[in-house]
Amino acid sequence: MKILQSSGVPIYQQIADQLQADILSGKMKQGEYLPSIRGLAKDLKISVITTMKAYEQLESTGLVTAVQGKGFYVNAQDSEMMKEQHLRKVETALLEAIQAADIAGMPDSELVATLNTLLSMKEN
């Protein structure tokens, strides 16, 4: 797991985002336990409280469940829920792109052309 101190994104959010990506991509499977809170905090050289906040955020989304004395494990993922999570991420990223384009003075037609170019590059 990589944490960027200067990214502007809170550390707990970076942890939650990376674990969420691993869960939604299937890299972490149903029933698999997340690294211990203390262990992850030690590995990343961060506060236990920061790690706990990330895990609690994942729990609030329903991706993981806490088990007293054992830690957090990955819940079964409903394919519809997974699709919704991915769609939400796409919408968020596109909204950020639209805002950045507006700030840069980029016309909508140029933004759409840029998206189409990027999509065509993905297909190759």
What's a concise summary of this model?
This protein has 124 residues and is mostly helical.
Descriptive labels:
62% helix, 124 residues, mainly alpha, globular, single chain
Describe the 3D structure.
This protein is mainly alpha-helical and 124 residues long. It has helices at residues 11-24, 37-44, 48-60, 79-104, 108-123; strands spanning 64-67, 71-74. The chain has a two-stranded antiparallel sheet. A hairpin with a 3-residue loop joins strand 1 (64-67) and strand 2 (71-74).
- The average pLDDT score comes to 90
Radius of gyration: 18 Å
The biggest beta sheet is recorded as: 2 strands, antiparallel
Per DSSP, the total helix count is 5
For the secondary structure, the number of strands is: 2
Strand content: 5-15%
Low-confidence stretches: none
* SSE arrangement, N to C: HHHEEHH
Question: What share of the residues lie within helices?
Answer: 55-70%
Structural class: mainly alpha
Terminal residue distance: 29 Å
Shape: globular
Biggest β-sheet: strands ordered side by side in the sheet: 1-2
